[in-house]
Amino acid sequence: MPSAIAIRKVDGKPGKVYYPLEKISIPTPEPKGEEVVITLSAASLNHRDLFIRQHLYPGTTFGIPLLADGVGTVTSLSPTASPATKALLGKRVLLNPGTGWLSSPSGPESPSGYAILGGTTANPHGTLADVITLPASELEECPAHLTDAEAAALPLTGLTAWRAFRVKSGAAAPGTNVLVTGIGGGVALMALLFAVGAGCNVYVTSSEAAKISRAVDMGAKGGVSYRAAKWDRELLSLLPADRPFLDAIIDGAGGDVLSRATRLLKPGGVVAVYGMTVAPSMAFPMGAVLRNIEVRGSTMGSRREFGEMVEWVRRNEVRPVVSRVVRGLDVGAVDGLFEDMKAGRQFGKLVVLLGEGAERARL
Which CATH number fits the domain that encloses residue 267? Predict the structure, then answer.
């Protein structure tokens, strides 16, 4: 039978517990209708996976493979599949990391909401497994220039960054000034790549000078440490004289970013927030109101936006940043990636090569 890695239940309160990983057997796939079986070659971690292990994510459950990001090859399908679905056989594909959101610009159309792959009751599938069965409609052919590790690093972070920057920020145009906070995480790095690719002047924050330096190597104009007491003033000094303000902030940290934004953003500027890893809430000061600053929440994205994002990556031959790779469904090795994430050591995505992906990496 195929195998996967899931979390095992132990006693503990949400936020205090840390569920151990365990290797499990999963049913042999039996695709129906327009479903296909994908033999996975790589998967990657997101912060939601760490939150799941800490029971800080809605619907956390046991016995369901972890992880939402994956790439693999279509290896079997239903005898009744349509010609369009049959054309995917043997193709390397990227998995849309969630279902229930087709094309609405506002949010998921499904009454039950958006169901992300991996580790929760919302979706019975995950990518930290040998195989996965999904509707063919949730797949995009993988850009040929990407390695398996790079491909696995793309779906969830790429989709989240694409919507936050391209759809929500209002600053996806040449010459605008964009701040990406907390550089080093997967979404922040993809936002940086998308903004640089759009011709924006991109600035970053981090607690580590080395991460800022690497971001500059990737095209950022500069950056500041968010640990500095007056980092907002330091950032203002970096902005061009003919455009001495930010047009937008792409934020995944929360904390005091809005109080800083009143000094940094132009009137009517936008803070596109895709996560709050520093704090679960953000103050909205009167200074932001007086400057007509907008805060726009942005979570994941639609199936249409996923396709648009993958096509842009294909056309521009963008490569997601991979921090570290391990091979196979090895509980100890995967646990080590989680430790990297807990300690904030990563710069880019943490990837597990699976099956043929692991074998190709050895060649």
Answer: 3.40.50.720
